[in-house]
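Below is a filled-in request sheet from our internal design queue. Each sheet records the structural input a requester submitted and the sequence that came back. We keep these sheets so that new team members can see what a complete request looks like end to end.

REQUESTER: design group, bay 2
PRIORITY: normal
MODE: inverse folding
CHAIN LENGTH: 237
BACKBONE (tokenized):
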């Protein structure tokens, strides 16, 4: 599966999940996970879209990919430097998650990933939409008649320096990834290189508030495109 990625200079990136073993587990589909042997206790990685949340206190939900659904129980935050509860992670139906854990069978009949750890999260209403495999769109997205540089200026003009960061004299750059959807809306806003939680949250807040873009086009049809942009926080003098 490929997505268009733009790092200000329209650098193209192919995003995929390798099926080979990693330090976090072996990549499997929901169907493969559900069919694993009861004696198989290997660490597994699942990637899919949240379809239903059963209990926010216990962190239980269903994760769907192209092969079916897997049940996850007791998800905790496994991202580096993060220690949020399930509620604090603000996971909602439609979010795309990558999680790791081991397959267990509860009460002799319920197949689940118990005590899973969140590796990655992206927000947006059409995460499960099939993305088109093109090397480049015919027409790139535009924001108010401009490209990504215009959007960067728009973001910078709306940033509010968090008091916590200002008092601590912390400045720097937060790198944020987001998708311009087929309807022009900004989706799947995600910090990929943070600085301070307060600064990360401010960068995400502003980008999420973006008006709609004019989407990328390929063969006369709108297509999704991913951007990665730096959001600079400079201490006021």
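RETURNED SEQUENCE:
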């Amino acid at each position: 599966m490929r997505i268009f990625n733009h790092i200000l200079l329209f650098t193209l990136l192919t995003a995929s999940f390798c099926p080979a073993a990693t330090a976090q587990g072996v990549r499997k589909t929901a169907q493969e996970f559900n069919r694993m042997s009861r004696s198989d206790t290997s660490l597994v990685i699942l990637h899919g879209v949240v379809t239903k949340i059963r209990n926010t206190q216990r962190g239980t939900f269903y994760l769907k990919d192209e092969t079916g659904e897997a049940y996850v129980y007791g998800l905790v935050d496994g991202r580096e430097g993060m220690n949020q509860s399930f509620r604090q992670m603000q996971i909602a139906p439609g979010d795309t998650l990558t999680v790791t854990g081991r397959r267990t069978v509860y009460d002799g009949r319920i197949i689940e990933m118990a005590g899973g750890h969140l590796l990655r999260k992206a927000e947006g209403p059409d995460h499960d939409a099939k993305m088109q495999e093109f090397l480049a769109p015919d027409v790139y997205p535009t924001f108010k008649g401009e490209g990504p540089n215009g959007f960067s200026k728009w973001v910078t003009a709306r940033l509010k320096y968090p008091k916590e960061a200002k008092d601590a004299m912390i400045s720097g750059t937060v790198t944020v990834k987001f998708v311009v959807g087929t309807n022009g809306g900004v989706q799947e806003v995600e910090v990929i290189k943070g600085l301070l939680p307060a600064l990360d949250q401010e960068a995400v807040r502003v980008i999420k508030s973006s008006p709609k873009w004019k989407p990328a086009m390929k063969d006369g049809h709108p297509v999704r495109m991913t951007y990665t942009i730096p959001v600079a926080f400079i201490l006021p003098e």
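SHEET NOTES:
- The helical segments are 30-34, 86-89, 148-158, 163-167, 197-208.
- Residues 1-23, 126-135 have pLDDT under 50 and may be disordered.
FILED BY: M.R.
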